[in-house]
Structure formats: C-alpha cells, structure tokens
Structure to design on (134 residues):
C-alpha cells in the first residue's frame, strides 16, 4: 500500500508483488505492469465510472493469488512482477490535491521501496491500454 496516494473512493492505492522463485535472481529483474481501463474527464464521466465500472476506481477487488505471465508469456518467469491496479482514472498522469487523480504519484510511490530495486539490473515497464501510458 502507498502511504499517501488516494484513489477515487478515498482509499489507499495498492500494488501487488509476485517474487520469482529463482534464488539466483537476487531481485535483479523486474517487470512492472500498470493496469488500464480508460479514464474519466469530468464529474459526470467519473460518476458514470463509479456507478457502472466500480472495479476501475479501487484496487481492493484484485485477486492477490493471481499468477502473471504464465503460458506463452513464461519467458518472463525469471522476473519479479509488480502489478499496479488502475484506480486513479487519470491515465497515470494525475498529481492534484484538488481531485483524487494521483496516477503520477502512484507511479512514483512504487520507487520509494528501494529495497526491491537496490540490485535491479533490468526493469521492464508495461501495461495495457491506459497502463501503457503509465
């Protein structure tokens, strides 16, 4: 959980870490996946989003037992994975005290956990569709 980054339902934003079982990895390979889901651009569109797509404004409904990048994506099994649910509805670009749009702040908050990235040699950023903008 981020200590200060708030999301649309005034809850703390979250991210999920899936550490590889490869002991030789030593936290040197990371894949950071930013989830997507369009955006809202007005009070009306944000209210519509809250009413009809509530899963896109919170990170609480995520299945933390989910495994990523298996099957055809198994070439990434050597990577520690950070999954960041999309709950800010701002294309990962907001940084405002006037609204709950804090995607930019959420992005940067991940790197406050330096213990994960101290030995990083490779970091892959990815996401789909709005997550790709992150």
């Amino acid at each position: 959980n981020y200590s200060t980054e708030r999301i649309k339902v005034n809850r703390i934003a979250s991210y999920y870490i899936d550490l590889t079982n490869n002991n030789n990895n030593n936290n040197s390979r990371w894949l950071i996946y930013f989830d997507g889901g369009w955006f809202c651009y007005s009070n009306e569109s944000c209210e519509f989003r809250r009413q009809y797509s509530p899963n896109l404004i919170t990170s609480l409904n995520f299945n933390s037992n989910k495994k990523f990048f298996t099957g055809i994506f198994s070439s990434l099994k050597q990577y520690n994975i950070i999954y960041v649910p999309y709950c800010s509805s701002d294309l990962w670009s907001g940084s405002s005290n006037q609204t709950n749009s804090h995607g930019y702040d959420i992005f940067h908050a991940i790197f406050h956990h330096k213990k994960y990235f101290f030995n990083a040699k490779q970091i892959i950023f990815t996401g789909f569709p709005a997550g790709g903008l992150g």
